[in-house]
Design a protein that fits this description.
It is built from 15 helices and 15 strands. With 401 residues, it is an alpha/beta fold. It folds into 2 domains: 97 residues, Urease, subunit C, domain 1; 290 residues, TIM Barrel (Alpha-Beta Barrel). The strands form 3 sheets. A 7-stranded mixed β-sheet has the order 3-2-1-4-13-14-15, with no helix packed on it. 53% of the residues are buried. Bound molecules: N-(iminomethyl)-L-glutamic acid and fe (iii) ion (FE). The site of fe (iii) ion has 5 residues, from loops. N-(iminomethyl)-L-glutamic acid binds next to helix 3.
């Protein structure tokens, strides 16, 4: 149905700027934006339906481009330990950390994993998220990774959100491969990736490049395999130390390199040349009480696109609000509210390889947008989370969330 949405202002995010249209009008048709512009220039012609947005600000639907939303158990006990001074790496070395979530995830049925992820994903949707990436990485064997990815797909089928799945089998060394990390990487490359890709469960492949996970050489084997299977790659890089994983990711035309607190200027140059998006995760920075900030000025200087995501996970970022991450991106990393909004719309779309169809309000793109009852676009980064009054439009239809 051709619909005219009017009595609104739009922050279109074309080119990653606010690109504001005051007194805007939007025509949607067959799930796409057919026209957007100033109401005064509205093309003549009939629309079957007209919707008065009552002065709202319209932005693209928010995109959370880095989550681990599917997992068993929680790690609030480790949170208490860390507050008593025990380090994240120390907890991991004692068999806690990612390994404890792996135990809980392996033990959970697909049904139980779905049920536990559901309220977390619903919280993100209530915050204005219309596209969501979900990683595996707490299964670490073929059956358990498959289970996680199937749950992620099902969330996308049953909720009003577009889900992109990422296989993060190279997240940690599972107990059955203890002390044999090279063998586990071989297992990931030779046994796990191909069937998961063939089953249509993998939109991208990710790995954790870090001292307490996998070396650049090991990660590179995963990236090579993924590319050979025709799947785009991403990387957790420079979160706790500088291994130049982000430069490595750029060599494989990664969609994104994520975290990046310890990246260097050279890494930024490599990412800019490859068009690899920098996904910053202020929730993990905050929750681990890190002090080294990602080099935002170097990213800006070299023209690397910056995205922001929740990193929703039980260990380092139990974050259920993408708008809270926008605020943290501004307060902790000194992004502007405009950069924060670009970080959860156009740049997040690019981090998922969806930049041509999502992330900005432009004719021809998917009609996913939010009409917020706010005074100015900066209000989205200003409030510390909370439920802002809004109307959600997905594929051109107003959607209850
Ligand atoms: O993005 N950095 C690695 N992976 C997750 C944390 C995983 C965990 O501790 O469970 C992250 O921060
Ligand atoms: Fe992560």
């Amino acid at each position: 149905m051709k619909t005219l949405w009017h009595h609104c202002h739009a922050a279109t995010l074309v080119d990653g700027r606010y690109a504001i249209i005051e007194d805007a009008a939007i025509i949607t048709h067959a799930g796409l934006i057919e026209w957007i512009g100033p109401r005064a220039q509205l093309p003549v012609g009939p629309c079957e339906r007209q919707v008065d947005l009552q002065g709202a600000w319209v932005t693209p639907g928010l995109i959370d481009c880095h989550t681990h939303a599917v997992f068993g158990g929680t790690r609030s006990g480790e949170f208490e330990q860390r507050l008593q001074g025990v380090g994240y790496a120390e907890i991991a070395a004692q068999g806690g950390g990612i390994a404890s979530t792996v135990r809980a995830t392996r033990a959970a049925s697909e049904e139980a994993l779905y049920a536990s992820a559901l309220p977390r994903v619903q919280a993100l949707l209530r915050d204005g998220v219309t596209t969501l990436e979900i990683k595996s990485g707490y299964g670490l064997d073929l059956a358990s990774e498959r289970k996680m990815l199937r749950v992620a797909r099902r969330l996308g089928e049953q909720l009003p959100v577009t889900v992109r799945t990422t296989c993060l089998a190279a997240h940690a060394v599972p107990p059955e491969f203890a002390g044999r990390s090279d063998d586990y990487i071989t297992h990931v490359c030779e046994v796990m990736l191909a069937p998961l890709v063939e089953e249509g469960l993998v939109d991208a492949v990710d790995a954790f490049c870090e001292h307490l996970a996998f070396s650049p050489a090991q990660v590179e084997r995963v990236l090579i395999k993924a590319r050979a299977l025709g799947v785009p790659v991403k990387l957790h890089a420079e979160q706790l130390s500088s291994l130049h994983g982000s430069s490595l990711a750029a060599r494989y035309q990664a969609l994104s390199a994520d975290h990046l607190e310890f990246m260097t200027e050279q890494d930024a140059i490599a990412m800019a040349a490859a068009g690899t998006v920098a996904v910053l995760l202020p929730g993990a920075f905050y929750f681990l009480r890190e002090t080294q900030r990602p080099p935002v000025d170097a990213l800006r200087r070299h023209g690397v696109r910056i995205a922001l995501a929740s990193d929703l996970n039980p260990g380092t970022s139990p974050g259920l609000s993408l708008r809270l991450m926008m605020n943290m991106g501004c307060t902790l990393f000194r992004l502007t509210p405009e950069e924060a909004l670009a970080g959860v719309t156009l740049n997040a779309a690019k981090a998922l390889g969806m930049g041509d169809s999502h992330g900005s309000l432009q004719a021809g793109k998917v009609a996913d947008f939010i009409a917020w009852q706010i005074e100015r676009p900066a209000d989205l980064a200003y409030w510390l989370g909370g439920d802002l009054p809004k109307r959600v439009v997905r594929h051109g239809l107003e959607t209850a969330i």
